[in-house]
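Extended Data, panel c. Modelled sequence:
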Amino acid sequence: MPRMLQPGNRGQGKQPGQPLTGPTPPVPVARAVVDCAVYIDGLRQPTGTDFRSALALVRKTGSGFVWLGLHEPDERQMGDVAEAFNLHPLMVEDAVHAHQRPKLELYDDTLFLVLRTVKYIDHDDDEVANDIVETGEIMVLAGRDFVITVRHGDHTHLAGVRARLEARPEHLKFGPATVVHAVADRVVDTYVAVVGEMESDVDELEERVFAASPRDLDIDVVYLFKREVLELRRAVHPLASPLSLLSGNRPMAESAALPPSSKEIRRHFRDVADHLTMVNDLVTEYDERLTTLLNAAATKVSTQMNTDMRKISAWAGIAAVPTAAAGIYGMNFDFMPELHMRYSYPILLIALFTVCFTLWRIFHKHHWL
């Protein structure tokens, strides 16, 4: 695969006051390599971390496979890997550029599985609910004698997965399919942990909404939390179809990395798919509960606004009585007999007080005040 090079500044002299610029030096692939090993009969071989020599050893002996782990490789680094393992350009492009939807694709005899990783961020206050789920990605490229894991993000490390598999060589002897299952199982386990952590937050948020007064209710927190649940749903829900393909006998999942005869691995994939189904059910439940909370919070706020409007209308009605009297006696007509009555002023005050007090009693009886 041709490498992507930046144009240089040949034939251009350095101008006074300008920094010296030139082509960006290529970053070696080793900078992106987390680990690389050869496994024969489930046992790790004493080789170096150079993936070219590891792949040459596997293909020379005709047994075992290479497991190459990469962390956020750039185009040049992934281009070198693609050249050695003969990877499809579209697969390489997706592996370099993150923000892919969970999917399973087959390029000739190479499986390409995209997994969205999630991490629950501990917090003491729901005010930071807009940042409690951090997402990343893991791409798995598996062939007959190799498996490449490309991780984007600083969480869901795969070192523990590799260590557990190396401690159980009877599983690693099944080849790259074992690594694909282990990575998928690790990612789904993080989903289970995250939904377990979020359950307490949803319960606490539910108690807050129904216990708080409408004046102290903050709908923004509910909305931000619902947005995080939707982010988790976008990571979890699309993975159901790839796991269904990997656990079945459909042609889409049949490749050199996962042949139809690997029934034991497919049984393990079905177990992972069952766990994912449970996670999907919980995420859907959280989404529905938060939708109900949003509606309940909006109803409480709307009810409080109606109550305030009734109070304002009631006081406005009471205030209209003296305002009407003042308007009548402020018209400055010459022939108003009440103006010359000796007790007209106290009579008017008593009448206004009586009418206003009667209105207050009526509004108070109907819970308007």
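The chain has a mean pLDDT of 81. This feature is highlighted in the accompanying rendering.
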